[in-house]
Amino acid sequence: ALREIRILQLLKHENVVNLIEICRTKATHDNKYRSTFYLVFDFCEHDLAGLLSNINVKFSLGEIKRVVQQLLNGLYYIHSNKILHRDMKAANVLITKSGVLKLADFGLARAFSQTKNGQVNRYTNRVVTLWYRPPELLLGDRNYGPPVDLWGAGCIMAEM
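== Cyclin-dependent kinase 9 ==
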């Protein structure tokens, strides 16, 4: 949770969910002296998975293009800030009532860096929801970078 909070505090972009505040409960005897943290975000009316599963919602070609454009803008921004999302899926794409897309759920996100020879550092391959997981992760690769998020974006585009 702390990594997610640090990442969300760093990322400020129209197409990334905005962390407004962090609240925590008081540690007491009743909760075994453990605090619970709550993250407060701007409200988004929809998630893309919910819209795609609704038979009454049909996206026009123009709307699909706009969603994909915003999705790629958000990914470009987070990758430019050396952050991998690592859980791209339709349920983690929020949409406001005015049609603004927000990348959400940075629980698996992490900073990335490249070694001197341009190779990305080794990370766990147990990331990305199975249906959106790229072939290299399915085959056990631990040297990965932004393309794993782009594969997920491509899966989302195909779903639409």
